[in-house]
Amino acid sequence: MKKYLGGILFIIIAAVILIVGIILGNHNASKNYEKITGIISEIIVDEVYSQEDNEMKTNLTFYVNYNYNGKSYKNVRLNYSDSFHNVGDKIDFYVNVDNPNEITIEPQTPLFICICLATGFLIMGIIIIVKVKKSSNY
Question: Which of 22, 60, 101, 119 is positioned for an S-S bond with 81, CB 3.0–4.6 A?
């Protein structure tokens, strides 16, 4: 068991990073944002050429109307590009309670960074365990 300690330690660190990321992500997601429903007021469609893919791409820009704390907000840009919505559709999003002109489909959280770090530690732990196991078989 001692020979696997390094790999096990990396796996434990991965689990701790992931748990902390989930806790911080849930805390930050609800900290400054409130989920509300608005109505899509405009969708701007732009055709742009992607040099990376060597083809034309369609970019959608959504604008929404919503009420927050008794005040109306009109034609506020929402960074979202789902082609299944139309003008007049209701849509759920998050409003920054400190700056109601700032809206987003999902509040940004550190969860993605934690998942990447945890994955790295998990892979390193597995590699260490496999190498130790292979070297002890010889």
Answer: 60
